[in-house]
User: What shape does this take?
Amino acid sequence: MAVVFEKTKMLTDAVFHYCPGCNHGIAHRLVAESIEGLGLTDNVIGVAPVGCAVFAYNYFNCDMYEAAHGRAPAVATGIKRVHPDTCVFTYQGDGDLASIGTAEIVHAAMRGEKITTIFINNAIYGMTGGQMAPTTLPGMKTTTSPYGRDTLQCGHPVRMCELLNTLVEPRFIARGSLSSPKEINRSKKLLRQAFELQHEGFTFVELLSTCPTGWGLTPEQSQQWLERNMVPFFPINVFREPNQMPEAAKKYTPDLKVSDDKPKEG
Amino acid sequence: MALTLMKGSEAIAEAAIRAGCRYFFGYPITPQTEIPEYMSARMPEIGGCFLQAESEVSAINMVYGAAGTGERVLTSSSSPGVSLKQEGISYIACSRLPCVIINVMRGGPGLGSIQASQGDYLQATKGGGHGDYKLIVLAPASVQESVDMMKLAFELGEKYLNPVMIVADGMICQMMEPVVLPEMVDFKVDYKAKPWAANGKHPSADHKRAVINSLYITVEELDGINETLQKGYREIEKNETRYEAYNMEGAEIIVTAFGTVARICKSAIDDLKAKGINVGLLRPITLYPFPYEAVHNAAVAPGVKAVLDVELNAGQMLEDVKLAINGDQKVEFYGRYGSHMPTSEEIYEKLLSMREGF
Ligand SMILES: Cc1ncc(C[n+]2csc(CCOP(=O)(O)OP(=O)(O)O)c2C)c(N)n1
Assistant: This one.
C-alpha cells in the first residue's frame, strides 16, 4: 500500500491539550512540517512560551526549552550564541510576546538574532481565562475589559509586524492567518520561508488565530469573527522580504568624525 | 608564580575565562561594569561570546538558554540588577542548570548608592526569587580569593546542577591587588556526560531529546522535582560548607563576618593580639551552605565569652549566626548600613568595650 500521508516526525505522539477549535494545534503542525520539510529535523532547538502553548515542549519532537513568560527571545539568543548553526525558534502568544516580553522580542529583532519567531495572535490571554491582551480589539469584551476595550484608557492594539518592520536587521516579517484552509496553506509557505531565511537573520511570522473558548464563540463563528474583525486591523501581508528592504531597513554607516578633516576653503 | 597587579573586577573576569567560560551576558551597572567591559574586549580574542543584553531580565534568560547547552556561562550585576534577575534565577534553579552569577553588592534598598554593601545576604541565601530553591553562595574576601573561586564556582554548579552566586562588593571589584591567575582550562561540553544538554540532535533510540523546563503541573510531578532539589541541597550542605577560622586559640570573643568586612575585622584582631587580647574570626566562605556547626563550636569553645557579628548591613547574616548558636552564647551585632564601611579602629574599639562587660 502506498503511503499517501504521514505524520511529521517533528511532532511527538503526545495528545494536544488544546480546546476544540483552537488554532494552536494547526500552528504546531505547520511549524513542525516546515522544519521537517526543510530537512532541519536533526539540527533544531525550540523555545516554548508561557501561555496556552506552555506545553509545546511536549509536542515538538526536538530539544525544547520552556521559557519564563515573555523571555523566549532572550533564551533563544543564549542558545543561538552557543549553537550558531542550529535552527532555533520561539513560539509565543500575544500576551507573552507583545506585552510582558516586548523588550525581549524588540531587542532580539534589533540585534538581528538568527532565530525564527512564530507569534500566535489570538487577541486574548487564553491560558489565564480570557483577559485583555495588547492585541485585544477596540470594544472587545474580555474578563478584564468587561465593558469592552476602552481605547481612551488602554489605547489601540499593538501591531507587532509593523512595529518590528521599523528595525533594520529583520530579514523576514510576515502576517498570515489560520482562519481557512486557504489561509492555512498561505501561512505554511510563510513559515517555510521564515525557517529558510533564518541563517541570514531574524525572521518573524505572526499568525492570526482563534480562541473560541476565550471569545465565547463556536469554532466556526470564531473563524468568521477573525476574518471580519481582526484582518482589517492586522492586515495579512509580507512586510519585509529580504530582497525588498524598505526605507526603514536601510543601513546607516556614519563616518563618526566630528567634522570633515580638510579645513573649509576661504 | 607570577603575580599580576590587577583590578578586582578584571581579575575576576579573566579568571572566569580561564575557567573555561566562553559566554557572558550582562548589563552595565556600577560598581561591576568593568566586568562586562573587560569581557567585551576579551571574549572576541578567544572566540567567546560577550553580549550586552537589553536588561538584566534578558541577560539572565540568555544565561538560561546558553547554560542549557552545557557550556560554562556567566553573568554579573549589582544589587538592583540582581533583583531583576531573580525571576530567571528561580527558573534556572528549578531547571537544574549550572551557571555562575556575580553580585557586586552595592548600598540599598532602592537605587541606594554605588558604594560597597552586604545588603543582599538574605536575598542571595534565602531564595531571592520565588519557590523552594537555594543557590550555592560564595563570598570572597580578597581579589585572589575571588579569582580562585571562579573555577570552583563552575565546578560546583556542574557537580550539583545548581546555579552558583558569588557575592562580592564594590571594594573587591574596585581595588587593585597582586594576584596569581590560574592556567587556562580547556573546557569542552561532553554531550554523552550531559544528556540533559541541548544540542539540536533529533531523538533516537540511544539519545533522548533535552527538555529544559521548570513546569511541573501535577502535585506528584512538582513533589518529585522538589524532592530532587531538596536532596541536592542536603548533599551540598554535607559536602561543601566552607569557612576560614582565624586566631581561634584562646579567643575571648569570636567575630563572625564575611567578605571585605571580615578582612577589616582581621586587622582589628591583629591589633588586639599585639596588645595580648585574643579574638577569633570565623569567616563563612560559603554563605549557603552556612557553616552552622563551625559557628556553634567556635561560640561555645572554652574561654569564649561572647560573639560579635559584624556586617555591612542592618544584620542579615546575624540571623544565621543566631540560629547556629541557638542561645548557647551571647551574640552582639556591629553593623553599618550599606556603603558606610566600618574602619578597623571602630571594630577594635567595639571589641574592647565588649571586654569591659566580662
Ligand atoms: C511573570 C508571569 N506573569 C503572569 C503569568 C500568568 N500568565 C500565564 S499565561 C498568561 C497569558 C498568556 O496569553 P498569551 O501569551 O496571549 O497566550 P495564549 O494563552 O492566548 O495562547 C499569563 C498572564 C505568568 N505565568 N508569569
User: Anything to note?
Assistant: The two ends of chain B are 47 Å apart (CA to CA). DSSP finds twelve helices and 15 strands in chain B.
